[in-house]
Amino acid sequence: MYKAVLKFFALHHHLSLPDIGNFSVETQPAQIDFTNRSITSSKNKIVFSNDKLPAEKMLYDFLSQELNTDETRAAQSLTEFTEQLQRELDNNNTIHIKGIGTLSKQTSQVLIFQPEEIPDYFPPIAAERIIRKNTTHTIRVGEAEKTSDEMQTALLQPEKIRKEKWWIAAVILAITGIAAIAFYYATHK
């Protein structure tokens, strides 16, 4: 029964065992690691939920084909299999399902699942940015995108010297303040 259940899981990426829980395969997308300058490939991860849903008809059909029996006998075989697993869990044994992971009982209703490590088929690859000289490419500068030629000309031009005129506003405020003080003393003598 183990082989048939594992084959179903490998083909359909999900398995619902009555009174045990649900196993499924989730795919984590490829990721870019900017600090290490690498790209990791997508990974599959086996997850388990304690939802005790009944098995699907598709599982019973698959088991009846694999065991060369009718659907009723396949359902009985699956029930016996899950009851055996449940008895082992009730005896505080851990169950290792090869290719899926390890199950153990935490409380009467909660099972702990430790997934089996899935090997990385594709190692991380180096992701170095290549910038060729004398070719135009886009560069993001703040919120704007500029070409490398535009940035070269902007960086090579001498900076325009701005004359600072902050002192004009300071002189106007000082004259206004002196005039206000003079007006106050002139009117309150």
Please describe the topology of this protein.
Elements: H1 2-12, E1 14-17, E2 21-28, E3 31-33, E4 38-40, E5 43-49, H2 57-66, H3 71-90, E6 95-97, E7 101-105, E8 111-115, E9 125-126, E10 138-141, E11 144-147, H4 148-156, H5 166-187
Antiparallel strand pairs: 1-2, 2-5, 3-4, 4-9, 6-7, 7-8, 10-11
Helix pairs in contact: 2-3
Give structural notes.
By secondary structure, this protein is of the alpha+beta class. The chain folds into 2 domains: 2-121, HU Protein, Chain A, CATH 4.10.520; 127-157, no CATH class. The chain has 5 helices and 11 strands, in the order αβββββααββββββαα. It has a 3-stranded antiparallel β-sheet, with helices on one face. A 3-stranded antiparallel β-sheet has the order 3-4-9, with no helix packed on it. A hairpin with a 5-residue loop joins strand 7 and strand 8 (111-115). The chain is elongated, with a radius of gyration of 36 Å. The N and C termini lie far apart (110 Å). The relative contact order is 0.12.
